[in-house]
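Tokens in:
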């Protein structure tokens, strides 16, 4: 391979691929330390760490492919989705890591952030007021007490690799820490509601579907403006704005 592939990049961090090596560059060395620690303690398959510098983490590529991507079709079988659900449950049942994660923000902090973001979405004309108001109501169900779990914190569909019906690894642990398990499940199934039952079948008991739906709305409301400002397209078919419209 004679080129560098930019997998994802924004002002906070970037992931590059060179051959079979992934390079994670993070402006916050402490966050990179947390990612390394989470990968080491998570009882699920993760990429093999090749070396680590203060702002760079090098890992080996995982075998297999992702289950799909947000806004695109799923390439995984129902059995593969169920297997992913079982692996996620294993993570959530593990001893808690020491750090709070992206999925562990307090209810008061989340509610304040959500209210401020909803106001900006409407004031700046990013989304229609009715769409924002309806999804803000749906999001209320996520603002409840939860029992902390070991969460990935950014469990997007393209962060989970499978080979056939077996999960070969989970990547990108920057946001890992203590948090709400249902946030992980909602992030994983965002835009792929048709596979929620498969994930639940593998994960097992303890899932409140209303809270999953609420996290779909809450996560989408909080990310739409950030995505636009960082060069991503939440208005693409099947992405965040379509998720919000589906709640109407």
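Residues out:
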């Amino acid at each position: 391979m004679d080129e560098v592939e930019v997998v994802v990049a924004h002002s906070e961090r970037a992931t590059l691929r060179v051959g079979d090596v992934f390079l994670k560059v993070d402006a916050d060395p402490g966050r990179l330390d947390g990612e390394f620690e989470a990968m080491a303690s998570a009882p699920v398959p993760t990429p093999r760490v090749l070396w680590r510098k203060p702002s760079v983490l090098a890992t080996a590529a995982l075998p297999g492919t992702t289950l799909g991507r947000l806004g695109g079709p799923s390439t995984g079988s129902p059995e593969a989705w169920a297997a992913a659900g079982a692996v996620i449950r294993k993570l959530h049942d593990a001893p808690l890591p020491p750090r709070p994660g992206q999925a562990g923000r307090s209810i008061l902090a989340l509610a304040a952030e959500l209210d401020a973001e909803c106001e900006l979405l409407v004031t700046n004309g990013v989304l229609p007021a009715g769409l924002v108001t309806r999804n803000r109501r749906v999001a209320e169900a996520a603002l409840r007490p939860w029992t902390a779990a070991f969460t990935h914190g950014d469990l997007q569909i393209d962060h989970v690799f499978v080979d056939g019906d077996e999960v070969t690894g989970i990547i990108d642990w920057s946001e890992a820490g203590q948090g709400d398990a249902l946030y992980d499940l909602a992030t994983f199934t965002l835009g792929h509601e048709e596979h929620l039952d498969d994930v639940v079948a593998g994960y097992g008991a303890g899932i409140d579907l209303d809270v999953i739906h609420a996290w779909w709305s809450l996560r989408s409301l909080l990310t739409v403006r950030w995505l636009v400002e960082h060069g991503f397209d939440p208005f693409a078919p099947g992405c965040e704005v379509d998720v919000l419209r589906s709640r109407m």
